[in-house]
Amino acid sequence: MIRFEHVGLRYGIGPEVLSDINFTLAPGSFHFLTGPSGAGKTSLMNLMYLGRLPTRGLVTMFGQNINKMKREDMVAIRQRIGVVFQDFRLLNHMSTFDNVALPLRIVGKPEKEIQSNVSELLEWVGLGEHMNVLPNTMSGGQQQRIAIARAVVTRPRLLLADEPTGNLDDEIGERLLSLFEQLNRMGTTLVIATHNQMLMDKFPHPRLILSKGILTIEESKFNLRKKLEGLF
Question: N or C: which end of the chain has fewer CB within 10 A?
Fold first, then answer.
């Protein structure tokens, strides 16, 4: 799905904010991206959704070399990626339904198909009774679910979420992580950036850990236990 080989990123002539990043994400995997503030998590997410290109190294996505890709081909790659931003980025003058329908309308899907798909998805995330409500009149947890629905309505192969539980209480955060796990079981590859240690402990997925622009990978305790069991 994604391969980073010796990737570095700097802004302008400043020092590298990401240095010699190496990792591979398999299709259908689920990883947390974590580390202290300023470690480079948002910068790494930017690279993964093609918001920025690396200053060195090789990035391969869906089997294609991003470094040599034409702009029009990059647009097609982005359409396979769903992104949940930390600040939601909802359009407050549009209803919940229209916010979620927007990606489908941009690519020209028939309105009948949009009505069916969006209604079903909003029911699935528990917002079926709020389709005609403006986002800025809703709670933070509800707005987050709108953002998630909008990110997955095109059925992306890869979903990236930047601090999706950062401003939510633990109970709502657990509900959202359970929702992400459902998406993962349906085949979506996920990368969730978070500081929330409790949630990462409760949902034992592998971790991409950033510190001062350097990445290390920590397998989940569940996967390590399974490997050890296989040795005996």
Answer: C
Phi/psi at 20 (nearest 5 deg)? 50, 55
CA–CA separation, 110 vs 112, rounded Å? 5
3-state secondary structure of 47: helix
pTM, 2 dp: 0.85
Structure-block tokens of residue 148:
């998630």
| Contact assessment for residue 161 and residue 190, using Cβ atoms and an 8 Å cutoff | yes
Main-chain dihedrals φ then ψ at residue 6, nearest 5 degrees? 50, 45
Listed in order, the ranges of the chain carrying CATH 3.40.50.300 are 1-80+158-232
- CATH no., domain 1-80+158-232: 3.40.50.300
Interatomic CA distance for residues 84 and 150, integer angstroms: 8
CA–CA distance, 220 with 205 (Å, rounded to integer): 5
Q: Edge-to-edge strand order for the sheet containing 158-162?
A: 81-84, 158-162, 189-193, 30-34, 207-211, 214-218
For the chain (232 residues), the mean pLDDT of every run of 10, in chain order, is 94 92 94 91 93 94 89 86 88 95 92 94 89 93 88 91 78 80 91 90 92 89 47 42
Identify which of 100, 79, 78 has the alpha carbon closest to the alpha carbon of residue 148: 100
3-class DSSP state of 230: helix
Amino acid at 231: L
